[in-house]
Amino acid sequence: MSIKRGVSLYSFQHETFLGKMNLEDCIRTCAELGANGIEVIGEQSFWGYPEQPAREEDIQHWHALMEKYGTTPVAHDFMLDYKRYKGRLMPFNEQVESIKRDIDFAKRLGTPFLRALVSIDPDVLVAAAPYAEEAGVKLLLEVHAPLHFDHPWILRHAEAYDKSGSDALGFLPDMGMFLEKFPPVWKARFIRNGVPQKIADYIEKAYEDRVLSEYVIQNVRDMGGVGPALGMAETLRHNAAYEPKRMLAHMDRIHNIHGKFYQITEDLVEPSIPYDQIVKVLTEGGYNGYICSEYEGNRWIEDAEEVDSVTQVSRQQKMLETLISQQGK
Amino acid sequence: MFDNKVIVEDSLAAETLTDGSVGVSVLARLPYYRGLGLSMIENIAVTVDGKEIERSKVRFAAHGNMWTLDEMETEYGDRWNFGEKAKVIALTDEPVASGEHEISVAITMRVSYLPFVPTTRDIKTLSL
Question: Which of the listed residues A32, A262, B99, B124 has the most CB atoms within 10 Å of its CB?
């Protein structure tokens, strides 16, 4: 068994937002790329949900597409808007009920996994676990930068899951947490937004030198940086080059992966995320689930050029195919 | 994200509400990778030719209904769907003359998992 390839339809958000691709275009594209696993954000792809239940005809359409293109539902990413009410948090029990509704929805879609956002209270997930077990699905916390597998918040989740004894709770790491270099598309956008070249170069270098974000922000201030320059420096608070090997201690709970990327160059390389190391570590850990492409470069280039998510996802899939097959040898 | 795609091109229209108040509208999309329940739309700030429209004079219309921004805050049964073109109406003291107008729309969203409250602003010159 080796690592399988999939795509989160999040990747095509530019085209679907503008109505240039519909659900069938997305699924067909994934199938053409040999990425047979499909991850979906329910409320991005299903009109009206969750304020209204997804329409039965939409669910049938989803399954018809899976059959037509030979694809497999992998995950439904739910949101749990615990700030739905202005000025007060959603009560605990209502949060649990909200997750149960998403579990019902995932069952209708046929996805074995649900992505839970990283800020969700571990006790809420533990309380929803029996319902997930009964439904035969797993709730996976998305471990996402700036959080990481050594962060106390994630360790608290891991402890709560272990204590619960439930195997319906797990993790979905987002590969953006292994941000080795400052992404070129971010730097270019910040320069277009008015960051002086000198400051942009400094921040990029400071990131590579692993300088603590707070020092970088202060140094940029000292260099006369304001507005967008501080914004660029502050991205260092939300990103870091964590160590992919940290996933190894949690392999029994890792069931899906977000193949986050900002750009894949023509020679099939993500300049900022070390996919070669990542695939190596996952193979070492015996991972045989999906890596689902999650293209997030769109928002960094849309002001300057036409976004082409299909080309980007296609390149990442080729890259993954090569890396996975190399590990198999 | 979608910063320059909030206001739909060529969507400026004159409006007269049933109570006789007048203004202009544009079609707008939520600058976000999913939709959002209406109670989480904190604000829609509109300017017409550089003049700020008071919050109480902005209306949001979708699915056959119309809300003030205050009414939206307690609307839990409907949402602004992903990519959906909804109507944002700015009431003005006088009817807006035909011709070109600079319109800006700034949307503030309450997103549960974000440690900040994002505002995305789009500005376009449209013809009435």
Answer: A262
The percent of residues above 70 in pLDDT, for chain A, comes to 99
Residues contacting residue A311 through CB under 8 Å, at least 6 positions apart: none
Structure tokens at A296: 């997030």
> Around Cβ A62, how many Cβ atoms within 10 Å?
21
The residue type found at A188 is A
Report the complex ipTM: 0.95
DSSP string, A13-43: HHHHHTTSS-HHHHHHHHHHTT--EEEEEHH
Question: Does A101 touch chain B if contact means CB atoms closer than 8 Å?
Answer: no
- Segment A224-281, tens digit of pLDDT: 999 999 999 999 999 999 999 999 999 999 999 999 999 999 999 999 999 999 999 9
For the segment A62-101, what is each residue's pLDDT rounded down to a tens digit?
999 999 999 999 999 999 999 999 999 999 999 999 999 9
The tokens for A119 are 């800020």
Interface of B with A in 14-43 (CB under 8 A): 29, 33-37, 39-40, 42
Sequence-distant (≥ 6) Cβ neighbours of residue A285 within 8 angstroms: A247, A248, A251, A254
Q: Give the residues across from B28 on adjacent strands.
A: B7, B86
Among candidates B3, B39, B42 on the partner chain, residue whose Cβ is nearest the Cβ of A84 = B39
* Superfamily of chain region A4-180+241-328: Divalent-metal-dependent TIM barrel enzymes (3.20.20.150)
Structure confidence at residue A329 (pLDDT): 63
Q: What are phi and psi of B18, to 5 degrees?
A: -60, -25
- At residue A326, what are phi and psi to the nearest 5 degrees? -65, -35
Tell me how far apart the alpha carbons of residues B27 and B20 are, in angstroms, rounded to a whole number: 21
Rounded to whole angstroms, the Cα distance separating A77 from A42 reads: 6
Of the two residues A35 and A328, the one the predictor is more confident about is A35
Q: Report, as an integer, the average pLDDT of B67-91.
A: 98
> CA-to-CA distance for B87 and A141, rounded, in angstroms?
36
Q: Do A44 and B37 touch (CB under 8 A)?
A: no
**Where exactly does CATH 3.20.20.150 map onto chain A?**
4-180+241-328
Distance from CA of B112 to the nearest CA of A (A): 5
**B29 C-beta neighbours (distance < 10 Å), count:** 23
The number of C-beta contacts closer than 8 angstroms across A and B is 72
